[in-house]
Amino acid sequence: MNYFEWFDELSVKVKEIDEQHKMLISMINSLREAMLAGKGREVQKVTIEAMVDYATLHFGTEEKYMQAFGYPEYAEHKAEHGSFTKKAIELKERVNRAGFVLTLEILEFLKTWLVSHIKGTDRRYQRCFCEHGLT
């Protein structure tokens, strides 16, 4: 069984964005599997690199639509994305400097951030995006 399962309340009703959210869930589950197999250290660097790539791809997608649709909470939403990216870069630097970050710290950060961000911040743009034809 996976550590983190997708559930319907995480859907923002935009397939492209839901698929990107599922990518992060998959990264979280892969990291946990590696940790349980005693390979957490080996997978950490790859996972953190993927987090930074994810931030660039996913946040760029959301922000592109927000700007195109004149989403009124764009600045606040972008600031949350910036916080995630800052944390991901911090973890990347710690791994590069020390060679290790506690895998559980990464897992908890990813899971907690994703659920709270989607159910809170992302949910607020759902209506705007759908009204502009995204499904």
Descriptive overview:
The protein is an all-alpha fold and 135 residues long. The chain has one domain (11-131): Hemerythrin-like (Four Helix Bundle (Hemerythrin (Met), subunit A)), CATH 1.20.120. It is 79% helix and 0% strand. It starts with 14 loop residues before the first helix and ends with a helix. The model has no long low-confidence stretch (mean pLDDT 88).
Q: Summed up, what is this model?
A:
The chain has 135 residues and is mainly α.
Overall CATH class: Mainly Alpha
Strand content: under 5%
Count of distinct structural domains: 1
Assembly state: single chain
Going by CATH, the homologous superfamily would be Hemerythrin-like
What structural category do the secondary elements indicate?
Answer: mainly alpha
How many distinct beta strands?
0
Average the pLDDT over all residues and give the rounded result: 88
Helicity level:
over 70%
User: What is the CATH architecture assignment?
Assistant: Up-down Bundle
Straight-line N-to-C gap: 29 Å
Shape: globular
Radius of gyration: 15 Å
What are the segments in which pLDDT stays under 50 over at least 5 consecutive residues?
A: none
Q: Classify the fold: give the CATH topology.
A: Four Helix Bundle (Hemerythrin (Met), subunit A)
The major β-sheet equals: none
Order of helices and strands: HHHH
Number of helices: 4
Secondary structure topology:
Blueprint (H helix, E strand, L loop, with lengths): L14 H22 L3 H30 L4 H25 L4 H29 L4
What descriptors fit this protein?
79% helix, Four Helix Bundle (Hemerythrin (Met), subunit A), mainly alpha, globular, 135 residues
